[in-house]
Amino acid sequence: MTAGQKFTTEKGEITFFSDAAIEDIKAVNNVIGSLFNVATSEVVFIVKIRDFTFDKSLMREHFNEKYLESEKYPKATFQGKVNGYTHGAAAQQNVKAVGKLSIHGVTRDVDVPGTMQLVNNKLLLKAKFKVKLADYNVKIPTIVWQNIAEEVEVTVDFIYKPL
Questions:
Q1: 146, 51, 78, 136 alpha-carbon torsion, rounded to 10°
Q2: 101-142, pLDDT tens digit by residue?
Q3: Which tens digits make up the pLDDT trace of 64-91?
Q4: Which of 17, 32, 130, 144 is the most buried (most CB within 10 A)?
Q5: Contacts of 41 (CB under 8 A, 6+ apart)
Q6: Average pLDDT of 19-47?
Q7: Number of domains composing the chain
Q8: 3-state DSSP call for residue 59?
Q9: What pTM was estimated for this model as a whole?
Q10: For residue 60, what is the enclosing H or E element?
């Protein structure tokens, strides 16, 4: 295995969870594209907003049309570096992804704590962080403010394979 090795997603999942007064909302997206470069620690991922699935079809419709406006802003991206990862170590390592997260046409600097582990020549990346909807100009209509949390929890779970 070379230090200049690149890994691409074999399997990925991004979920978000909104814990609000009236109802909890959970969405899952398994259509993820990501690349991790061991030599430079650079990581990038792209996710299509329309690929998030919900328990209720009406939630998906509102999410795409009213909140994330997926016609106008079709994808979310992250581009940055993973700090704290030593390639070849077998143990799970605490890492931090530092870079730019773009959602709903807004790009912000983020620091996301997580873990990475090399298992059977595959890299497992896991992270959990909060996103404030207002930071990304996602507006919640007053009529439904009790249905949607101002801050959602995002969970990233990627399995990378050598490119």
A1: -30
A2: 999 999 999 999 999 999 999 999 999 999 999 999 998 766
A3: 988 899 999 999 999 999 999 999 888 9
A4: 32
A5: 81, 82, 83, 85
A6: 91
A7: 1
A8: helix
A9: 0.91
A10: helix 57-62
Distance CA 145, CA 106 (A): 22
Instruction: Give kind and range of the element (H or E) at residue 111.
Output: strand 106-119
Nearest to residue 125, comparing CAs of 99, 156, 98?
Answer: 156
Here the CATH number for the domain that contains residue 106 is 2.40.128.110
Percent of the chain with pLDDT over 70: 92
Quickly list DSSP for 131-149: EEGGGGT----GGGTTTS-
Give the CA count within 13 Å in the CB-facing half-sphere of 102.
Answer: 15
> What is the per-residue burial (b if ≥16 Cβ within 10 Å, else e) of 109-135?
ebebebbbbbeeeebebebebebebeb
Q: Which residues fall within 8 angstroms of residue 53, CB to CB, at 6 or more apart?
A: 27, 28, 29, 60
Residue 2 has pLDDT above 70, yes or no: no
| Domain that residue 128 falls in | 6-162
* Distance of alpha carbon 122 from alpha carbon 132, whole angstroms: 32
Question: Per the domain annotation, does 1 fall within a domain?
Answer: no
> What's residue 39's pLDDT?
94
Provide the 8-state DSSP code for 58: H
pLDDT, residue 124, reads: 96
